[in-house]
Amino acid sequence: MNIGGGAGAVLGTTSGISNLASSLAARLGGSAGSYFDQLRPASFRGVPFVSLGGEGAFGRRNEVHEYVLRDTPWVEDLGRGTRRFRVFGFVVGDDVIAQRDLLIAACEKEGAGSLVHPTYGRRDVSLMDSRWIERWEKGRYFEFEFEFIEGGPRVFPATSVAGGSLVESAASDLNVAAALNFARTALTAIAYGAAVLGSAVSTAVGWYTAAKNFVGDARNLFRLLTNLPGDFGRFAGSATVPTFSKFPSSSVDTSGATVESLTQAATLARANVDAASATLDSAARNLDASTIDEFTTAVQGVTSAMLAATPDPADSMRLLTSLAGYEPSGATTASTIGTAMATMQAACSDLFRRATIASIAVAASNYEPTSSDDAARVRSQVLDLIDAEMTISGDQGDDETYDALRSLRHAVVSDLNQRGASLPAMRTFAFATPLPSLTLANRIYRDAARADELVSQADPVHPAFFPTSFKALAT
Question: One Pfam family this chain carries (predicted)?
Fold first, then answer.
């Protein structure tokens, strides 16, 4: 057998294909080099072979749904279809047996591998089937057939807990526990007569009066612009709507809100606080063993109305934190009735404070932190209140409230840690001379469009003259 002649026939065939391609390219107005120069040497897992050709299957994954008495089906698109490749190639040479064994070993390796296709480039693929063909009349020459599918990394569904829902549920449980502990204490004191009931009324009046005053806070009224579309300066930034791109992940209210509509909504919200306060006043004046549930519900109604009346969660936390520090001022005596009055005052104060803390936690779950440092700051602020209340409830033996506070603490930590983990940290930047915000944004972030964000974070006297040292997002 003329082995050299067989090899020469193979080389002649390859040369003929090249010449034919050159002739065809010339007729079509191109050059052979412009195409063949782009071809890549074929290989699988780094083992080279010569590609004779191939074919592929591409498209979409469609599921056809056919219905009774309906002439046309509904085709459901399930995404991009699996890309399949069939590649035909060969190895040739005096060491063809060694080349074949290397290619077989590459095919038998575990897992996905890298395929270099002459025209399709490098792809991560999984080998589904392969075979090699040996012919006596083609000595020093083995053919291969491969069937690949293009794959990707192993991805599992990402699970996350809805932190806001957990906080709201834990806050509701705290309100229930606080009401139970209040009822247990108040029922004992109520038996001492009208003076004790008067103490409950005066304590409630002082508390809801403070709540109404806080809602009318000048800064809270200024924050009415929070949900108004547009930019109104760095001092009008909020934790729910982006101002100067300060909160790029938040959504802007595009519902067509105007100053008039926001003013009307704020007026209605403050009226709701007044109505909730009136309900609490009535419940306090009619407090007895049969109306304790109405009283505790009215207390929670005041904090809920106050939370709804503050459009900015940061303001909600600020005002509610002030309300949580309310202390009744009524003086009592050391007599039996005086002691009962003091017990009622303390029970009311505990109930008010715990309902307020529950609303603060809900406000924190609605707050959009600007950085991981901001999330940690809010977390610490809320946890300080919860921890202090856990100490009080533990000392008083209010086990239900203690357990509810512990659950609320866990929910707040989980929520803010989860949301803060994806945010950049704050970093101190220092420069030799004062620079304008545009220059600093370009130097720090390579993005001059973030200049207004720097203004909002660093709060300079003027955007053209930043301090030489300031804090801003690290990335």
Answer: DNA_circ_N
